[in-house]
Amino acid sequence: MKKITIIFLAILGFSCSGDFKDVVDFTTVENPNLSEASVVGQPNSSSIWLSGLERQLGFVFNETLVLAELGSDNYLNTQTFFNQFLDGLNIQITDPDMRDTQRQIQRLRELAVFGKDNVGPGDPNYTAATEAEYNYFEGLSYLFSAMYFSALPAEPLGAPISAEQHYQNAVTAFDAAIGINPRAEYHLAKARANYYLGNKAGAVQAATAALALDPAFDRSVSYDNANGPANNFEGALYGRATFDDLQPLPTLDFLDPKYSFLSPALDAPVHYMKAEEALLILAEAALSDNDIAAARANLTSLLDLVATREVRNIDDSIEQRIEVDPGSRPDKADVVVNGRTGLVLDRQSGNVDIPSVSGTSLTAADIAAMNDDDAGLTLLYRTRQEVFIAEGLRFVDMGVKLVIDENEILLNENINEGDTGTAPVIPSFISAVVADLDAISYDAGASTASTAIDLSAILVANKSAAEVVPFE
User: What CATH number should be reported for the domain whose range is 46-461?
Assistant: First the structure.
């Protein structure tokens, strides 16, 4: 029985004429342009519905990216209009961002299911490619549910199911899409689900299949700067300019801002399913098998691929690193970070080159010197952090999970506070270093900077923990 029962009782005692009652009885009003019949059964409705799914995915990333990037060690939140709690991993059921993130993911699921079950079959012009996309988007909704929550309902007001079950549901949906119209990103999405499940064989098979279809695939979600949704994360990384809202670790400075201004009509896309991930999964699997030759080969292929990706030459001179505390963060190209050079850019001396799809500090020499030991695995996780910056994966690699929001707990009879999913998951080795996730030291006179911790090394040191490093 629910701990809190809410009963709404309304008594209306007006003596109104029948005509006036009709005026205020809004339950009978129907907009013919918004009715189900205006969509289901109409020619080409399935492709229009698919466009709506793509748009909804933009809203999903606007929620998940903000929380995931703030909660990771990628960025320090200095003064944004974004969540003020995630930087310290203060995750609460009353936080409206929990509500909004959960709802956008669930809305994606419901739109995909309705498209698959109703809109598509009713469209005389329904295609196999569109049907596959509906299954893919349904799979993405389960994938994101599992990546960011320890438990969530898989249907309206349903009982929460575990992240593991959501991953399994995602695999089923991706298999359905692959069976209809195989695409590289469908295989990669399946590989990611299997990766986080710890199913090495399944992840390797799917990653290999993705690369076989297209060794350089890249699927992105687009943003409409004029009509919405705009890329919210771009707003903080670049659009708010002198506010210097989000500051990356100095080790990631050369990758910032991943999203920058494109045009008045188009905002920067998020590249969320790309071949680089398949190569990194294969490299990690090879390391776990003590096959250093295969790991090196995959990472060499990764370097070759990254070299082909777009690099944007942008004017970022308005970035001050940082306005609220001038001189507190490294901003010169000669700064040595953790004993390494070339990681910090001088934005005041001219345009800077920023990778817009993938970038990394990994070198051929690093790969040649790599061994199948903890140091090699740490290098791989550092590379994952770089390649996936501003894409929401570092947070997942940390093993942290968000919570079911308070509204869902109160209104869903299948959930009570204290149930699985209503408390955050933060591994003990992460909670122990929360204060140091974004902490740095900087000596401007000596041109040296260092991070307080090496989180990649901490993840690898705790590789036997269930929450992280899934192949170990």
Answer: 1.25.40
Sign of CA dihedral 261, 266, 272, 278: negative
Q: What is the pTM of this model?
A: 0.92
What SS3 class is residue 213?
Answer: helix
Among candidate residues 408, 384, 396, the one with its CA nearest the CA of residue 163: 396
pLDDT digits (tens, 9 = 90+) for 39-50: 887 899 999 999
Q: For residue 24, what are the β-bridge partners?
A: none
Domain ranges within the chain, ordered by starting residue: 46-461
pLDDT tens digit sequence for 371-426: 999 999 999 999 999 999 999 999 999 999 999 999 999 999 999 999 999 999 99
Q: Are 252 and 340 in contact (CB under 8 A)?
A: no
Q: How far apart, in Å, are the Cα atoms of 235 and each of 62, 82, 265, 402?
A: 11, 11, 14, 23
Strand partners, 221: 270
Q: Do 436 and 452 form a contact (C-beta atoms < 8 A)?
A: yes
Vertex 67, ends 66 and 73: CA angle to 5°? 95
User: 200-203, long-range: CB within 8 Å, 24+ apart, which pairs?
Assistant: 200/285, 200/288, 200/470, 200/471, 202/171, 203/281, 203/285
* CA nearest neighbour of 149 among 157, 141, 139: 141
Long-range contacts (CB closer than 8 Å, 24 or more residues apart) made by 448-452: 448/335, 448/336, 448/337, 449/250, 449/329, 449/330, 449/335, 449/336, 449/337, 449/338, 449/344, 450/337, 450/338, 451/249, 451/250, 451/251, 451/337, 451/338
Q: CA angle, corner 26, sides to 25 and 29, nearest 5?
A: 120
SS (H, E, C) 22-41: HHHCHHHCCCCCCCHHHCCC
Distance CA 184, CA 390 (A): 22
Strands 448-451 and 336-337: parallel
| Count of CA atoms in the C-beta half-sphere (13 A) of 419 | 23
Please return the burial class of 1, using the count of CB atoms within 10 Å of its CB with bins 0-12, 13-18 and 19+: exposed
**Within a 13 Å sphere around the CA of 81, how many CA atoms are in the beta-carbon half?**
9
Terminal CA-to-CA distance of the chain, rounded, Å?
Answer: 41
Strand, helix or coil at 340?
strand
